[in-house]
Amino acid sequence: MPTYKLSINNKKYSVDVDEDTPLLWVLRDHLDLVGTKYGCGIGQCGACTVHFNGTAVRSCLLAVSVIGNSKITTIEGLSANGDHPVQKAWLEHDVPQCGYCQCGQIMNAAALLKTNPNPSDEDINVAMNGNICRCGTYIRIKQAIKTASKL
Amino acid sequence: MTKIKTQYNRRSFLKVSVAAGGGMLIGFSWLTGSASVVNSQQVSVPNEWFDINGYIKIANTGMVTIYSPNPEIGQNVRTSMPMIVAEELDVDWKNVVVEQAPLNTGFYQNQFAGGSLSIRLSWNALRMAGATGRRMLLEAAAKEWQLPVSNLSVSNGIIKDKNSNKIITYGEIATKAVGIEIPKEIELKEPKDFKLISTSVKNVDGLKIVTGKPLFGLDFKRDGMQFAMIQHPPAFGMKVKDFNEEEIKGMPGVKDAFIIDISIPEPGAFDEKGFLQLIVIVGESTWQLMKAKKAIKANWEVVSALESSKTHVEQLEEALERGKVQQERKDGNPDAAFKNAAKVIERTYSAPFIAHNTMEPMNFFANVTENEAELIGPIQTPKALEESVAKLLDMPVEKVTVNMTRMGGGFGRRLYVHFGLEAAAISKKIGSPVKLIYTREDDMSQGTYKPAYSSIYKAGLDENNNLIAFSVRGTGLPESPVFPNRFPAGTVENYSAEKIEGKTNITTGAWRAPSSNFTAGAEQSFIDEVAELAGKDPIDFRLELFDRAIKNPVGEKNDYDAERYSGVLKLVKEKSNWGETKPGVYRGVAAYFCHSTYVAEVIDLVMENGEPKVKKVWCAVDCGIVVNIDAAKNMIQGGVIDGIGHAMYSQLTFTEGATNEMNFDRYKLIRHSQAPEDIEVFFVKSEIAPTGLGEPGLPPAVGAIANALYKATDVRYYHQPFMFYKPIVG
């Protein structure tokens, strides 16, 4: 099995896995970074969203072999103490119900705010449409993104 | 004050003990994620804990651990249950830490998540636990000071002598409280004195959720643990014969491959009825197992019918026309009344099978040794799992332990325990701890789905447009969705409710608000159409009917309280400013009673680029006392979105016994852009003990969206999912 050197949350990791292993399973099975969730495996639900050089991507579709020196950020590395504006806003609006999809929602929202600091409702809908919340916390997510944009 | 008898049995008396170090008591504390972090404040780590009564542990520092007994599926009981204990114990919420209790049938009651019953069934037990603790701490302080208990008062965990203003904290006196006998009778607070209940308290796991800490079954890991995946037959009606075992065993990362059988003697309501024999592959990483799973080549045999959606529709139609009818209720003479009616209207409604699709797919950890079985994972019915695993392994139930993780959604799916049994069977076979993981495709194609339903509603009006006759005949695959004693039973002189059972080998079960999730939509869109035929406003028409049920109800077995039912309608009418019209905005209303709770909803809908878009929803809810206001609103908002989403977009269809939808590319769930822009929730102020919240928000949303869609499109929507249904106009 080939060895891959990865830069995740500003830390260096080395893993021996098959070259087609999706980043999602490297994070979950090999690095114990389980905040990134498995939901569908085909890029349809957004639960596995991470940042790839700052851009939101679906880690279930990202093979470990193509990462190279790119910087990966997962929910565990979004902030030191859970105090990223998006996380703070999520707590303020008490968004989660079951909570399973929320890390993916937060990662996607954080990437959105980086490129668009004051998104409109339409911008949020377009950016977030790939993230399913089965509990239906969509309204609170939208409110939290707007709150985060002011923090 | 209300006095109640305490109900502690002998086992709970044994639990009153000094527990040093904290860890001793909680052998099940397997994850750092098990305890909550309240208000993200770091509380100093106590050096001694005192177990008060199995629900409560108090540290010498004043920190209080409250055990939440029930499974957490997102209904937020891990916050609301401890709130009830903390209220009666009278402690500062800032000092409370919450831990998940293990399954302990000898001590806790009703440890399950289903039927919107967690709070309703445990309200008294939780209050009793808190009040008992408070009383024992007061008695300990009284003894210490040589004073009568009546001289003492308590607030926020600080006991005070009313005469001298001398104080002592719970933390300081806890060690002495351990020696106090559990009182036989205790006093509960009056609802007017509640300080914590009916406020808004943030989710105790909020910080852990937003920082991605391990909380869910899928996150659980133990050293030496193997991963396992299953392959079930490709269609309902098929069974595995054999597979390319040797080839699979030779694949990279695969340690073993075999077939398991999870049949048990006398299976219960929560046991699997579909796929009892499964191909299993065991290995060290999820990805390698996923690849090996794709390489499985198996021989399957057909053991029963391979059903398709087309035949399901025909079966439902056939059942309604010619099925064996069970008369569930009959008032007056419906046949004669329909004959004499000036106007008669009859409509047929249907809904397809749908999957639960919890975002966290089914999974479970099991560690089975010769004499014991340990199970850890997401389960709504831990007791049922424990009993079934004991049967499967032929082991005394005492040797099986079940611990609950937070669940990435339930919606009824995790009432069914087969994935826990599968994990146990695999662990037994390989002789090591294992975690079974379903892929999304496994999860969607081996479900315990919401049944498919169809009902015919019929109403008769007299020449003054009064409702004089009403009938409903409902069938389903496999069960009928009819509730004979719910509205409009009790409001109509001549009434009939009939059930017809159906047959299918597709596995079905409880799906959020079982049967109500269909019946509310059908009945409330029908009532809307009847009101229109009568030339009456849809809310006024309903209120007239409830007036009848208040003043002079028909029959004696009506499930609902007509005053509370009309109460939520009146409240939503006022809050939504019903009657107001805005150009391009279309309104629908519905009300429903289920899980002992009353909910009325008004939906405002607009058409954007030919697509319906919900602008706003108003909800009026009567669920008795609301424990946690903002969290309760979240629950209702989620129910409304779930109801709209499934009614509009979701369906599971079958071809030759196999689901056509296997993942979220084909199975449509409501997404951000389709969700309502705003949902306002109003609770009726009440001192009645709390009733259900997890389910009742959903059913009326189906009716309200159907009625708003009608206003927007001039077409009635009878068949779910509404956006796939192409009505024939004219």
Q: How would you sum up this structure, described in words?
A:
The complex is a heterodimer of chains A (151) and B (730). By secondary structure, chain A is α+β, with helices and mostly antiparallel strands. Chain A has helices at residues 23-30, 85-92, 102-115, 121-128, 138-150; strands at residues 3-8, 11-16, 49-52, 55-58, 71-73. Chain A folds into 2 domains: 3-77, Beta-grasp domain (Ubiquitin-like (UB roll), Roll), CATH 3.10.20; 85-150, [2Fe-2S]-binding domain (DNA polymerase, domain 1), CATH 1.10.150. In chain A, a hairpin with a 2-residue loop joins strand 3 and strand 4. The radius of gyration of chain A is 15 Å and the shape is globular. The mean pLDDT of chain A is 98. Chain B has 3 domains: 2-210, Aldehyde oxidase/xanthine dehydrogenase, molybdopterin binding domain (Aldehyde Oxidoreductase, domain 4, 2-Layer Sandwich), CATH 3.30.365.10; 217-304 and 362-437, Aldehyde Oxidoreductase, domain 4, CATH 3.30.365; 323-354 and 449-713, Aldehyde oxidase/xanthine dehydrogenase, molybdopterin binding domain (Aldehyde Oxidoreductase, domain 4), CATH 3.30.365.10. Chain B is 28% helix and 25% strand. In chain B, strand 26 and strand 27 form a beta hairpin. Chains A and B meet through helix 1, helix 2, helix 3, helix 4 and helix 5 of A and helix 5, helix 7 and helix 16 of B.
Index terms:
heterodimer, A: 151 residues, alpha+beta, Ubiquitin-like (UB roll), DNA polymerase, domain 1, 2 domains, 5-stranded mixed beta sheet, 5 helices, 5 strands, 34% helix, B: 730 residues, Aldehyde Oxidoreductase, domain 4, 7-stranded mixed beta sheet, 30 strands, 28% helix, 25% strand, globular
